[in-house]
Amino acid sequence: MAANGSSIPPTTLSDQVLETLQAAIVEGELEPGQRLREPDLSKRFGVSRGPLREALRRLESRRLITTAPNTGARVVALSKTQLLALYDVREALEGMTCRLAAENISEEDLAGLSTLLDQHETELERQDGRDYFRQEGDLDFHFRIAMACGNSMLSTILCTDHYQLMRLYRYKFSASPGRPARALREHRRILEALYERDGELAEILMRRHIRHARDNVATLTEADVETPAANARNHP
Amino acid sequence: MAANGSSIPPTTLSDQVLETLQAAIVEGELEPGQRLREPDLSKRFGVSRGPLREALRRLESRRLITTAPNTGARVVALSKTQLLALYDVREALEGMTCRLAAENISEEDLAGLSTLLDQHETELERQDGRDYFRQEGDLDFHFRIAMACGNSMLSTILCTDHYQLMRLYRYKFSASPGRPARALREHRRILEALYERDGELAEILMRRHIRHARDNVATLTEADVETPAANARNHP
DNA sequence: CGAGCTCAAATTGTTGACAGAATTTCGCTT
DNA sequence: AAGCGAAATTCTGTCAACAATTTGAGCTCG
């Protein structure tokens, strides 16, 4: 079972385009709702439209772009409703992830999470206004738990699909004043539950944590503009 | 429940191949692990390899086929571990689905679920040996709840991705003797909770229901053969 | 001055052909 | 006769060109 871990990367052009284009979308280089014209992208990546279209189809499955026949692709633009829906999905999946992680996570990974939270604490003390990096750090915490839960299907769904969407929208909504500190405390409690191998508690705490984040977004976008662009044909 | 409601079906060749090929896989016409050669499929569907490859990429995202560079595609063949992992994902997602459905499902849909369960009861009395159709009916119950939960992301994930996989493996493991009757009772209780708009209870009952189904599979495959074919590179 | 129509340009959908990798076949050696 | 290795075949990855649809600019007309 050659896992080609080190030797050769038998990577296809479609794979490379997928990675690069996903990065461009998630890091905000391409704006939500922006139209993606195949000739443009084709020229940009130095690739013909064949592999490009395969990459687009995969990005569509990851919900990072939306497409409609004969009209092409656009960068996804979640409405407020859809963003909150994403949090509900995360609550369900990450709750389960956390329950399983309590049973399966290794001691090394637990130690790694512990040092990660220490880093977050020092960052939080130094620069409490800028929650920018904290947000990325928050996702890092969740990411590591997902990777260590021992259920490869869960890990893939969360890390490949949903976290990319979260990263895309992380820029949009900065946390409210007290949120980063509270989030850190919640992370600490979750980690305690993992140390004690208490899956039931770990799940409850993770679900509450994500629900708090959801509430934060819900109030911040109270009378906010629905992200306008081009998600007409999302749910017919 | 064909989409594109009324006017014109702006469907592309890739779409059609996706549907047809997915049906062939899910209904067992193509065996798990079987290799899918592009020229063969190309000829079979009367389509060139371009749209075909796009369809394959989407089926890969739906986890119905696995691919590796330069080696092509194969029909997915879940190991016992992966099948149980799928049940864990379902437990999380459908629990949440059920909670939301308790808040959002319409009276008509509730009535529809009620008559569906009545049908299942009569079927169960008539032919208790053949749980074949019951299994399909079981999925139908879950399918309808997913569609009515009011969270389009959850509906899509479950109906487009996971239920297809479940249908594929429904043939493999028939239920143990008393299971169909118990499953029906569990469905009835879930429906009661939905009628009472008790989201918390509905979630708990749905999770227990899916866990029971998981246990059923786990015991049935106790010393069973790992589905052999070709899922070497699934989690590197 | 704006709404609607027409036609041209650009874009998407699709195809067939070529290059390189993987698999199979066949012959050779021991 | 069995195992190994090399050549041939098949298949995947990629590209450039053709067909069909959409977009948008310019014009006409109310």
What report would you give on this structure?
Two copies of one chain form a homodimer. With 236 residues, chain A is mainly α. Chain A has helices at residues 13-26, 38-45, 49-61, 80-104, 107-126, 132-147, 152-170, 179-195, 199-220, and strands spanning 35-36, 65-68, 72-75. Chain A has a three-stranded antiparallel β-sheet. In chain A, a hairpin with a 3-residue loop joins strand 2 and strand 3. The longest helix of chain A is centred in the middle third of the chain and has 25 residues, at 80-104. The termini of chain A are far apart. The interface between A and B is large, with 41 and 42 residues. Chain A binds a DNA duplex (30 and 30 nucleotides) through residues 10, 12-14, 37-39, 47-51, 53, 69-72.
List its salient traits.
DNA-binding; 3 strands; disordered C terminus; about 240 residues; three-stranded antiparallel sheet; homodimer; about 5% strand; disordered N terminus; mainly alpha
Strand order of the largest sheet of chain A: 1-3-2
Structural class of chain A: mainly alpha
Please give the alpha-carbon distance between the first and last residues of chain A.
44 Å
Largest interface: A-B, 41 and 42 residues
Mean pLDDT across every amino acid position of chain A: 87
Unreliable spans of chain A: 1-6, 224-236
Oligomer: homodimer
What letter string, H or E per element, gives the SSE order of chain A? Answer: HEHHEEHHHHHH
The percent range for helix content of chain A is: 55-70%
